[in-house]
Design a protein that fits this description.
The complex is a heterodimer of chains A (658) and B (812).
Chain A lengths: L1 E4 L9 E5 L2 E5 L20 H4 L17 E4 L2 E4 L20 E3 L9 H7 L5 E5 H19 L13 H6 L19 H8 L2 E4 L5 E3 L3 E7 L7 E6 L4 E6 L21 E5 L9 H17 L4 E4 L5 H12 L10 E4 L3 H10 L6 H7 L8 H6 L3 E4 L5 H5 L5 E4 L9 H8 L6 E4 L6 H5 L8 E4 L8 H11 L3 E5 L24 E3 L3 E4 L9 E3 L1 H6 L3 E4 L2 E3 L5 E5 L2 E5 L30 E2 L4 H10 L5 E5 L3 E6 L4 E6 L3 E4 L4 H13 L2 E2 L1
Parallel strand pairs in A: 3-6, 6-7, 7-8, 12-13, 13-20, 14-17, 14-18, 15-16, 15-17, 18-19, 20-21, 23-27
Antiparallel strand pairs in A: 1-2, 1-22, 2-3, 4-5, 9-10, 10-11, 11-12, 24-25, 26-27, 28-33, 29-30, 30-31, 31-32
Helix pairs in contact in A: 2-5, 3-5
Chain B lengths: L2 H15 L8 H17 L2 H7 L1 H12 L5 H15 L2 H9 L2 H6 L13 H14 L3 H10 L1 H8 L5 H20 L15 H15 L3 H17 L4 H18 L6 H13 L1 H5 L1 H13 L2 H13 L5 H22 L16 H9 L1 H19 L10 H16 L7 H10 L3 H14 L6 H16 L9 H15 L11 H18 L4 H17 L3 H8 L5 H16 L19 H11 L3 H17 L2 H5 L1 H13 L4 H19 L18 H13 L2 H9 L4 H22 L8 H14 L12 H10 L2 H9 L4 H4 L1 H22 L1
Helix pairs in contact in B: 1-4, 2-5, 3-4, 3-6, 4-5, 5-8, 8-11, 10-11, 11-12, 11-13, 12-13, 12-14, 13-15, 15-18, 17-18, 17-19, 18-19, 18-21, 19-21, 19-22, 19-23, 20-21, 21-24, 22-23, 22-24, 22-25, 24-26, 25-26, 25-27, 26-28, 29-30, 30-32, 31-32, 32-35, 34-35, 34-37, 35-37, 35-38, 37-38, 38-41, ...
Classes of the chains: A alpha/beta (658), B mainly alpha (812).
Keywords (chain A): Cytoplasm, Nucleus
Subcellular location (chain A): Cytoplasm; Nucleus
Main location (chain A): cytoplasm
């Protein structure tokens, strides 16, 4: 059993598991942090961005000044943003049989895999994952395609050139494999390969293994996966949450008794408690708005935003913010708000019960109805007519490199009255803000990451007790910035195995058993003999028939009747030679009784020695040894066959035959 | 007893024994007992029983009742005990064999009612009241009650068990004090039988291997030494201390808590002061116990009034151990933590820290709570290691919020264990708050404020489990305890810096969606403002600051506070009835005497604002106020003060005329009100406050802005007065002549002479005769208008030409 690790990002995993005869890809996350190296794509012509000076080398060589621009001491690539794909060279991706998706954030690289690698398999995911994943992809494609950029920079990627660049460009990894965003056509084609599944549904893969999605509690339709054969069980835990937010709670019990537990997608901000962060979010929002400033919340169109809107729904009246407009701007804003209301079966119990009242499960419906929350596909069109300040704007993309957020950063960045509040943990907020410096606007970082923290992980591991834990290397040591926080790492016994990008891991367990079925007529012919209470044995002679990873014992064909129909036998019709087998022995030899028996049969001067594995009975007179061990008995005598046979018979008296 | 009560008593007794009328509320019975207690204390019980035979009858009937209510039974037992407390009454009841029936084998003891804890408790309390005299001792011995009490020590009801223990102590003390027995020797061989029996029982229990029995015996002894101080207690300790010593040698020590209590109780009693062996035992015990067990004992030792200094030092060391450990673990570089010797973070404490999270947390919380208690005691160890304790508290709080970066292994472990631990956070914040009573080196105080700010700011400081609240409380205590520089009343710079950073935090917390956070924030704010009632006093003192800018600001601040009603005139402590000078007088004093302009200008601004706002002090006597201010302002050397005086005069004028200048142009206009009579009154008032003299003097002020303002004011006044004033021809009156003459002299620069009393008519006549518009035109020209005029330009040109000519002549 091997694990091929194609992504180094712990929360955007992409691993391939070879288990029995199947090749299973676990998630295909897309690392979008690479876009932080690019200049933002402004929706409205920005003189500031277009007039940035080109960057030249220390020696004054300016051959890169078309590609690289300098802004407040940072250098950015002036080109269409590109993404860092999972490793494609480590394993032939056309051999992947299935892809299991755990949540909508972990499928963003899907079109790259399904459309460009010769992949012919099936993708499994839950319905909300697919629908919201589609929204995320649609938004991404839309954000990038609506700001066409002629230039595609490539000179800087030259290895010799890259070495000369300032950080972080210098340290960017695998830049040659970075790719531009996919098209909507590719998205549609990729999504068409998905087969929808429900929680706890068992899916057979080639008869060899069975995969099952379990609720993971992190997002709508998010799942962990169980991959099991008859005797082995691998659990894949990716992006799980034990907090009570909108999705169905996490199913922990089904993860018990795993041989291997692959653990990814823990919280990215282990020191920030989501409750405290939500409080920060609300307080800072209220403070800004009361002082007449605007609040910008860069976010994804789905996920935490539902919880934030719910908090605000409860908070705005008490904080006196009822008259402040809330805007949600995204090409998929409408669909996201609507979709959230229709996936009732995937929601937590509280929200499910609302549906039967009937009420919309999320209170943002009421915010929309009362005109407190308005949503628009983009800043163009209706929004510009309704726009009123001070206000609160939720919009993407959280990287601040594309999407409507770029416009608001340019618009509001100059006033210290305004605040940008970062709630998504995926991007470093300082790096995200770098191309907007100098910035007068206040910045508040309150990342809300509901995924498991290390305390919860240690409780989970105690509860489900896997034999082995496999996780990204980042989880096996404290965070680099807080090296003394030994509580911020996975602590389990035996220690977790860690992986990093482009590594192949041999998983530490061997398959020892395989299930074989016996045909009824063959079973009928068996004559079991009870050798211990509850344990019976029988010998069986049969033909082992293997097909589609299923093994069946069939009765051996009867000896062929000498009919004249067939003159020549095909080799496959050969009847296996059924030799007359020696009987099998079982039981153990009680040494004291054995010695007494020997004495009764005239042997004297018997000595017994204890050895590590059993006993040695020494017949000193006859110069003979009888070695009795757990699974073997040896009679060693000097060419005295008669004596040996006598002794053998005495030994056999103590054993059962069948 | 009150005859009326006597009359009611038989009916009450009948009700009590009537099973058909159960007493629903046993607090009535308690009140009844209280009343009987006062009655029996006030007079002879015997008489009471004889006069009210229903009471004895009640006791009999309760006993005879088939199934008495447990509450009534318990009540009867306690009542009988109360009566029997007096020996004659005891004898009286004995005659009727009532007491054995109540308290002996034949009584409720062993009956069905005994299963009710209230009955057992009543039985014990009855005996407790009864056991007051030697006859009672005999009775107890006869009816075998002591054995029953022994068994009740292990009762399932804690109240009963505790009462049994206390009763034993009481009986023991009674037996030993009984005059019939004389003065028993301390050795115990001639002790009364009853006492012997109890002591033997205690001895047996101490020998027992069952911990509950040992605990019972220890509790009895603890109470004995706590309450009885007779010489016999000395003998008792001599007899039992070897047994106690045996217990201490066992491993683990059985009933260690009770044992510690006993040792401390003995140490506090007179026995302790005479027994040197006790101090040794305590010292040994301290060193044998695990850190968590030793804590309470150490605290108890430190609370003792007189105990050897060495033992105190050892005990203090025990309490400091955990904190010393923390300091050692947190230290970036090895160095002495600064604690006294004996507290060096020994290996036992370290082991406890490392053994488990709960042990570590428990030990730290206990140490912090003990030290907090100790800090408040007068007999706390001296010198008190304030600085290292502060450092330790800060270190613990940093471990808890994950901001510590220790290098040692123990430090790393503590960090992992304590990160986010709410219990320790609360204990440490409480402790830190208590430490605010002492001082500390400045850099430590800065650290304290820094860590408090971290806690107040951090979203992880949970508002729901009181971490935030305690952080606010500790902050408050540090702010209030913040040392003030002796020479000035201002807050020290660190506190000021802290306050500056605290404000945004507080603002944010008051906006929190979590009600606990808003509530804690408000509580803090209330406390701060309550304690800072001294702020007005502070600002008042700053009115005399040596720096003129500060005085000016103080003037503005006090004026503002006074407008909001936050400034009350202090009364002098010696003569509360005599008010000290009002703020107005004080500010007026500044206006007339301050050598710098800024404070005087500030005073004028405050006065103008007061006048606009209708400040209470001003409204009291408006004319007096304006008159005094103008009088002082007119003599001021600073033109800005004089200009401000005119501003004030204008406000006054507008108020008198009922035409506020800033009136809304769209407001519905009131009918023009100023009737001639009213106008005359206005002019009278203006004369009374000598506004005219002030304004006219200003008209010829050497500073142009003042003259301009005055001109505007007089023009405004003239415009208002003319339509109503009528063309009274006063031109020739002597008043007008003298005014005009004075004005001419003023214009010429001789301003010494006052105008004296003026009649409104004369003033108006003068105003009308003056060319105010012309004057305004002149004043509007800037001082360099002559230099800028074309005439000047031409002259300049001509002059320069002349110079050129001269130069030419020079050349040849």
């Amino acid at each position: 059993m091997k694990l091929y690790c194609l992504s180094g990002h712990p929360t955007l995993p992409c691993n391939v598991l070879k288990f029995k005869s199947t090749t299973i890809m676990l998630d295909c996350g897309l690392d979008m942090t690479s876009t932080l190296n690019f200049l933002p794509l402004p929706l409205v012509q920005s003189p500031r961005l277009s007039n940035l000076p080109g960057w030249s080398l220390k020696d004054g060589n300016a051959f890169l000044d078309k590609e690289l621009k300098e802004c407040s001491g940072h250098v950015f690539v002036d080109s269409v943003p590109e993404f860092c794909l999972p490793e494609t060279e480590l394993i032939d991706l056309s051999t992947v049989d299935v892809i299991l998706i755990s949540n909508y954030h972990c499928m963003m690289a899907l079109p790259y895999i399904t459309e460009h690698t010769g992949f012919t398999g099936t993708v499994y995911a839950t319905e909300p994952t697919v629908q919201i994943g589609r929204l995320l992809m649609e938004e991404l494609v839309n954000f990038i395609e609506r700001v066409p950029k002629a230039q595609s920079a490539s000179l800087w990627k030259n290895k010799d050139t890259q070495r000369l660049l300032p950080s972080p460009l210098k340290d960017a990894v695998e830049v040659s494999t970075w790719r531009r965003c996919y098209t909507m056509q590719e998205v549609n084609s990729a999504l068409s390969k998905i087969q929808l599944v429900g929680y706890s549904q068992k899916i057979e893969l080639f008869g060899a293994v069975q995969v099952t999605p379990l609720s993971s509690g992190y997002a709508l339709g998010s799942s962990n996966w169980i991959i099991q054969s008859h005797y082995e069980k691998v659990s894949y835990v990716s992006g799980s949450s034990l907090l009570t937010t909108h999705p169905q709670p996490m199913d922990q019990a089904s993860l018990k008794n795993s041989d291997v537990l692959i653990l990814t997608g823990l919280t990215q901000i282990p020191t920030a408690n989501p409750d405290g962060m939500v409080g920060e979010f609300c307080s800072n929002l209220a403070l800004t708005v009361r002082n007449g400033g605007n609040v910008l919340v860069p976010c994804y169109p789905s996920g935490v935003i539902y919880d934030l809107l719910e908090c605000l729904y409860q908070y705005i009246d008490s904080a006196g913010l009822s008259s402040i407009p809330f805007y949600f701007i995204s090409p998929v804003a409408n669909s996201s708000l609507e979709f959230s209301q229709i996936f009732a079966e995937w929601l937590c119990h509280n929200k499910q019960t609302k549906v039967y009242l009937p009420e919309p499960p999320f209170p943002h419906a009421e915010l929309i109805q009362t005109n407190k929350l308005k949503h628009y596909p983009s800043i163009h069109g209706d929004f510009s007519n309704d726009f009123r300040q001070p206000c609160v704007v939720f919009t993407g993309h959280p990287s601040l490199r594309f999407g409507d957020v770029v416009h608001f950063m340019e618009l509001w960045g100059k006033s210290s009255l305004n605040t940008v509040i970062f709630t998504e943990p995926d991007f470093s907020y300082l790096e995200a803000l770098a191309p907007y410096q100098p910035l007068a606007m206040k910045c508040i970082y309150c990342p809300i990451d509901t995924r498991l923290n290390f305390i919860q992980v240690s409780k989970l591991l105690k509860e489900v007790q896997p034999l082995h834990v496999v996780c990204p290397e980042q989880y096996t040591q404290p965070p680099p910035a807080q090296s003394h926080r030994v509580d911020l790492m996975i602590d389990c016994q035996p220690p977790a195995m860690s992986y990093r990008r482009a590594e192949v891991l041999a998983l530490p367990f061997r398959r020892r058993y395989e299930k074989i079925e016996i045909m009824p007529e063959l079973a009928d012919s068996l004559v079991p003999m009870e050798i211990k209470p509850g344990i019976s044995l029988a010998t069986v002679s049969a033909v082992l028939h293997t097909k589609d990873n299923k093994h069946v014992l069939q009765p051996p064909p009867r000896p062929a009747q000498p009919t004249g129909g067939k003159k020549r036998k095909r080799p496959s019709d050969d009847i296996p030679d059924c030799k007359v087998l020696k009987p099998l022995l079982s039981g153990s030899i009680p040494v004291e009784q054995f010695v007494q028996t020997l004495e009764k049969h005239g042997f004297s001067d018997i000595k017994v020695e204890d050895t590590a594995k059993g006993h040695i009975v020494l017949l000193q007179e006859a110069e003979t040894l009888i070695q009795i061990e757990e699974d073997s008995t040896h009679i060693i005598c000097d060419n005295d066959e008669v004596l040996r046979v006598r002794l053998r018979d005495l030994v056999l008296k103590f054993l059962q035959k069948f | 007893m009150d005859p009326e009560c006597s009359r009611l008593l038989p009916a009450l007794c009948a009700v009590l024994v009537d099973p058909r009328q159960p007493v629903a509320d046993d607090t009535c019975l308690e009140k009844l007992l209280d009343w009987f207690k006062t009655v029996t204390e006030a007079g002879p019980s015997l008489l009471l029983l004889q006069e009210n035979p229903c009471l004895v009858e009640l006791l009999f009937r309760v006993l005879k009742a088939h199934d008495p209510h447990p509450r009534v039974l318990s009540f009867s037992l306690r009542l009988a005990g109360l009566f029997a407390a007096q020996e004659d009454c005891f004898q009286y009841l004995q005659q009727g064999e009532l007491l054995p029936m109540l308290f002996g084998e034949a009584g409720p003891l062993g009956g069905a009612a005994w299963t009710a804890p209230t009955v057992r408790s009543g039985w014990l309390q009855g005996l407790r009241s009864l056991a007051q005299h030697p006859s009672a001792l005999l009775f107890l011995a006869d009816c075998g009650a002591v054995d029953t009490i022994f068994s009740l020590q292990g009762d399932s009801s804690l109240f009963v068990a505790s009462a049994a223990g206390q009763l034993l102590v009481h009986i023991l003390a009674l037996a030993m004090q009984s005059p019939a027995e004389g003065h028993p020797s301390p050795q115990g061989c001639d002790w009364p039988a009853c006492a012997q029996k109890i002591v033997c029982h205690v001895e047996d229990s101490l020998h027992s291997t069952a911990t509950p029995q040992v605990t019972q015996a220890l509790n009895v002894l603890t109470t004995t030494f706590g309450h009885c101080h007779g010489p016999w207690t000395q003998g008792l300790w001599v007899r039992l201390s070897p047994l106690v010593a045996c217990l201490l040698e066992k491993d683990p020590i059985p009933a260690s808590h009770s044992l510690m209590d006993l040792l401390l109780s003995v140490a506090r009693s007179p026995v302790g002061s005479s027994d040197c062996g006790l101090w040794e035992t305590l010292a040994q015990t301290l060193s044998h116990l695990s850190p968590i067990q030793a804590g309470p004992l150490a605290l108890g030792i430190l609370k003792l009034q007189d105990c050897p200094q060495a033992l105190k030092t050892q005990a203090f060391g025990v309490l400091l151990q955990p904190l010393a450990c923390v300091l050692k673990a947190a230290a970036q570089s090895p160095g002495p933590p600064g604690f006294p010797e004996g507290a060096t973070g020994d290996s036992m404490t370290v082991d406890t820290f490392l053994s488990s999270k709960s042990a570590c947390v428990g030990l730290l919380c206990q140490a912090l709570a003990h030290l907090e208690l100790l800090q408040l005691l007068p007999q706390r160890p001296s010198p008190w290691p304030q600085a290292p304790l502060l450092r330790a508290a800060v270190a613990i709080l940093r471990f808890c919020n994950g901001s510590a970066a220790p290098t040692s292994d123990v430090g790393g472990h503590l960090c992992a264990v304590l990160a986010g631990c709410v219990r320790v956070q609360r204990a440490a914040l409480d402790f830190l708050g208590t430490l605010s009573q002492g001082t500390g080196p400045q850099e430590l105080v800065t650290q304290v404020f820094a860590v408090l700010l971290e806690y107040l700011t951090s979203p992880d400081s949970s508002p729901t489990v009181q971490v935030l609240k305690k952080a606010f409380q500790a902050t408050l205590r540090w702010l209030l305890g913040s040392p003030k520089a002796p020479s000035c009343c201002d807050l020290d710079p660190h506190t000021q810096l802290f306050l500056r950073e605290l404000l945004p935090v507080l603002r944010k917390r008051l906006c929190s969606p979590c009600w606990e956070a808003r509530d804690s924030g408000l509580e803090f704010l209330t406390q701060v403002t309550r304690h800072w009632g001294e702020v007005p006093e502070l600002t008042r003192q700053l009115l005399r600051d040596p720096e003129s800018y500060v005085r000016a600001s103080a003037v503005t601040a006090t004026g503002q506070l006074s407008s909001w009603g936050l400034y009350t005139t202090p009364t002098s402590p010696e003569h509360p009835e005599v008010q000290q000078e009002s703020l107005f007088t004080e500010l007026l004093h500044i206006l007339s005497t301050d050598s710098e302009g800024f404070p005087r200008r500030a005073v004028m601004q405050v006065f103008t604002q007061w006048l606009k706002d209708g400040h209470a002090d001003v409204a009291e006597d408006l004319e007096q106020f304006v008159a005094r201010v103008l009088q002082v302002a007119s003599r001021d050397l600073d033109w800005e003060v004089r200009a401000q005086g005119l501003e004030l005069a204008l406000v006054f004028l507008e108020q008198l005329l009922g035409h506020p200048g800033s009136r809304c142009p769209y407001a519905v206009a009131l009918p023009e009100a100023a009737a001639p009579a009213t106008l005359a009154q206005v002019l009278q008032a203006l004369c009374r406050v000598q506004l005219f003299e002030f304004a006219l003097r200003a008209l010829f002020d050497c500073d142009r802005p003042v003259a301009q303002k005055s001109c505007d004011l007089l023009l405004f006044l003239r415009a208002k007065a003319t339509p109503c004033g009528g063309p009274q021809e006063a031109g020739a009156s002597p008043d007008v002549v003298s005014v005009e003459a004075a004005l001419q002299r003023w214009q010429a620069g001789e301003q010494g002479q006052p105008l004296g009393e003026l009649e409104p008519e004369a003033v108006m006549a003068v105003l009308r005769s003056m060319d105010l518009e012309g004057l305004r035109g002149t004043l509007a020209k800037s001082s360099d208008h002559i230099e800028k005029s074309p005439q000047s330009l031409l002259q300049d040109l001509l002059a320069s030409v002349g110079v050129l000519g001269e130069n030419e002549a020079d050349c040849y």
